[in-house]
């Protein structure tokens, strides 16, 4: 069950990040970008609390902070 939850959280993180990048490309309002960025950081913290990534390539992607 834990791995399933982690994978779901990873999918949410990736989707939120892709959505943020798309909004950045189209020139979304700063408030909208800030909200999306906050959501991404929250998901990232949740993933960090759950321990190592199920996909080894996922961890370095989030270490850019």
Structure description:
This protein has one domain (2-49). The termini are far apart. The protein has helices spanning 2-26, 30-49, 58-62. The chain is an all-alpha fold. 2% of the residues are buried. Residues 45-65 are annotated as: Disordered.
Task: Flag low-confidence runs.
Answer: none
Level of helix content? over 70%
Percent of residues in β-strands: under 5%
Principal-axis shape equals elongated
**What oligomeric state do these chains adopt?**
single chain
Count of DSSP strands: 0
- Biggest β-sheet strands, sense, barrel: none
State the separation between the terminal residues, measured CA to CA. Answer: 29 Å
> What count of helical segments does DSSP give?
3
Radius of gyration: 13 Å
Mean pLDDT: 84
Tally the structural domains: 1
The assigned structural class equals mainly alpha
């Amino acid at each position: 069950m834990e791995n399933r939850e982690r994978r779901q959280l990873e999918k949410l993180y990736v989707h939120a990040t892709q959505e943020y990048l798309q909004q950045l490309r189209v020139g979304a309002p700063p408030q909208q970008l800030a909200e999306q960025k906050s959501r991404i950081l929250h998901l990232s913290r949740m993933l960090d609390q759950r321990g190592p990534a199920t996909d080894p390539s996922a961890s370095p992607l989030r270490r850019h902070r």
